[in-house]
């Protein structure tokens, strides 16, 4: 039987919330005799990080990156747990945590419904050119030109498909991928579950290259790792059909942003949508997917908000509290490092 993990920091714990995500003050139900002090910040910049975590045993982060410098013993000597709000931990230096035996816990499967629904919403927005129609209608173009149905036609001259004519390729089959696949199938799409890139596909998957060539809408919902950076780049975009659209609700960097803009400009694909960017928060100076240069493209962008929902916040709160309480109790859960 596993023995509880003991901590050398005593019974009073300094907990630092680096970004205030929740509308109410966090309250942890720690097992006696443990007590805590909670310090909450609306947001924390990388420049503010060191001062705020100097005496923390537990830090809770959502956005600010936690790199090797912040994890050095002279900056965060008492740090024992990083509680990540979200499933992705690519903004935390896990190797530096392992060197110092700092635990990292995430909050998995909390945003599955919200992210999946956002992805399907993005599909409709791109396939039906809804943002472009809205923008030109507001600018008076309908009254000027009398007809704007050409907005819905792709560069190849094809009218948009309905769901029954779509083939959905799902790349990444965790909680979000499974939910997207079920939703896509429910609205009439044929679904292909992709195998991993450059690996033989198991019996219940379709080879990655075949999915890229065959799917008319590709949903990306895979974690960011060294092997998934630029997972979709020039070759994959060239191999996609001119009627295909790409939806990214995973992580920035999985799609090569410059290659995506080129593909849209050349009409190699019909459209794209992304909720994530290589650099976040992103502005026109940070990403080729933003700014005046892409205004005429069938491109939909949202500022990493796919996860936002009442259900998501309640799930995050429940699992975050459990992660902290179980850590203090010596039985940590949801560890990724």
From TrEMBL:
Keywords on record: NAD, Oxidoreductase
Top-level taxon of the source organism: Eukaryota
Domain (D-isomer specific 2-hydroxyacid dehydrogenase catalytic): residue spans on this chain: 38-334
Pfam families the UniProt entry points to: 2-Hacid_dh (PF00389), 2-Hacid_dh_C (PF02826)
Keyword NAD: yes
GO molecular function, one term: NAD binding
All residue ranges annotated as the D-isomer specific 2-hydroxyacid dehydrogenase NAD-binding domain in the record: 121-306
CDD domains named among the record's database cross-references: formate_dh_like
Record-stated family: Belongs to the D-isomer specific 2-hydroxyacid dehydrogenase family.
PANTHER family in the record: D-ISOMER SPECIFIC 2-HYDROXYACID DEHYDROGENASE CATALYTIC DOMAIN-CONTAINING PROTEIN-RELATED (PTHR43761:SF1), D-ISOMER SPECIFIC 2-HYDROXYACID DEHYDROGENASE FAMILY PROTEIN (AFU_ORTHOLOGUE AFUA_1G13630) (PTHR43761)
Name of the protein in its database record: Glycerate dehydrogenase
């Amino acid at each position: 039987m596993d023995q509880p993990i003991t901590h050398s920091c005593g019974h009073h714990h300094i907990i630092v919330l680096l970004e205030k995500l929740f509308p109410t003050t966090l309250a942890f139900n720690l097992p006696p005799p443990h007590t805590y002090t909670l310090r909450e910040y609306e947001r924390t910049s990388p420049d503010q990080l060191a001062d705020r975590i100097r005496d923390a045993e537990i830090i809770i982060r959502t956005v600010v990156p936690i790199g090797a410098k912040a994890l050095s013993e002279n900056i965060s000597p008492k740090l024992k747990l990083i509680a990540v709000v979200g499933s992705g931990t690519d903004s935390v230096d896990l190797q530096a945590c392992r060197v110092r035996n700092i635990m990292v816990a995430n909050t998995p499967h909390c945003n599955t419904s919200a992210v999946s629904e956002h992805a399907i919403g993005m599909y409709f927005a791109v396939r039906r050119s809804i943002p472009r129609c809205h923008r030109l209608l507001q600018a008076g173009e309908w009254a000027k030109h009398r007809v704007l149905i050409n907005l819905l036609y792709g560069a190849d001259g094809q009218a948009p498909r309905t769901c029954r004519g779509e083939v959905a390729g799902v790349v990444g089959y965790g909680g979000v991928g499974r939910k997207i696949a079920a939703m896509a199938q429910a609205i009439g799409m044929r679904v292909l579950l992709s195998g991993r890139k450059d690996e033989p596909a198991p019996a219940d998957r379709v080879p990655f290259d075949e999915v890229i060539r065959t799917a008319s809408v590709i949903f990306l919902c895979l974690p960011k790792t060294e092997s998934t950076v630029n997972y979709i780049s020039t070759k994959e975009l060239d191999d996609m059909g001119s009627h295909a659209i790409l939806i990214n609700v995973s992580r920035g960097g999985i799609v090569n942003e410059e290659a995506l803009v080129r593909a849209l400009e050349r009409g190699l694909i019909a459209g794209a949508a992304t909720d994530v960017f290589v650099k976040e928060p992103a502005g026109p100076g940070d990403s080729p997917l933003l700014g005046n240069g892409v205004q005429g493209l069938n491109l939909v962008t949202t500022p990493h908000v796919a996860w936002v929902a009442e259900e998501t916040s309640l799930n995050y709160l429940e699992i975050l509290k459990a992660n902290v309480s179980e850590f203090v109790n010596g039985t940590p859960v949801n560890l990724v490092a």
